[in-house]
Amino acid sequence: MNIALIIDVLPLLFDAACLTIQITAAAIMLGFCLAVPLALARADGPTWLSRLVFGYTFFFRGTPLLVQLFLIYYGLGQLPWIRSSFAWPLLRDPYWCALLAFSLNHAAYTTEILRGAIRALPQGALEAAKAVGMSYLLRTRRISFPIAFRSALPSYTNEIVLMLKASSLASTVTLMELTGTSRKIISETFAPYEVFLAAASVYLLITFFLVRLSALLERRLCPPTMRGGKGEDRLVIGALRALKDTGS
Fold first, then answer.
1. Cα 106 to Cα 237: distance, rounded to the nearest angstrom
2. For residue range 118-134, what is the model confidence (pLDDT) as tens digits?
3. Which of 62, 93, 155, 180 could join 176 in a cystine, given CB atoms 3.0 to 4.6 angstroms apart?
4. Which positions ≥6 away from 116 have C-beta within 8 Å?
5. Can you state the angle between helices 94-119 and 3-44, rounded to 10 degrees?
6. pTM of whole model > 0.85?
7. For the chain, what percentages of helix, strand and coil (3-state, to nearest 5) are there?
8. Exposure pattern of 205-236 as b/e (b: 16+ CB <10 Å)?
9. Buried (b) or exposed (e) across 33-64, using 16+ Cβ within 10 A?
């Protein structure tokens, strides 16, 4: 194994990792913003709306992300009304096509993660909020969603890590992110083992920071007074504490 080659290519891979981090972070933020209202509609919305959201999540969770990326990158350009629309300058760019595909896919998985967490909320916490006359929006903002997000955080962290690894598919539409740059270096050096080992190390480093950030956030969202004891009792206590600021 050529250690010197691994050291030489690491700066190039770190530069390429900036694009990987950028597109992953953007997809996560856009996907999460889309997933929150969809999860609420899926969990508490009317039947027809819940079924529409289920159809969306079923499609994006039931088909490969690579197929979704190809449908957006190669397929949308085949539609004349897309080519004549205002969105065409963006949709003909591989970066925006990849970002759209990643965001929609991430939103589908996140929707189901949050929906399961919302459905799992103990009724005691919700009844405590209803008892003082909190509206649905206020109850969701101060009780339901914070508690659901806290319980869903470990699963959501796994989805973020999967999204990071899935970003390697962007290289199939000519984006020179971490994996795409690795392939280019391999075509020049004919050393796939060393280059992919270096790329894997960079992916592991990014994943390590993501996992540590999630652990810090989890501790932040779950103070010591909420740890230990029966889960439902702790959630009800947290709900009652949140009622102190019902006017905010």
1. 33
2. 998 877 777 777 777 78
3. 180
4. 152
5. 50
6. yes
7. 85, 0, 15
8. ebeeebeeebeeeeeeeeeeebeeeeeeebbb
9. ebbbebbbbbbebeeeebeebbebbeebeeee
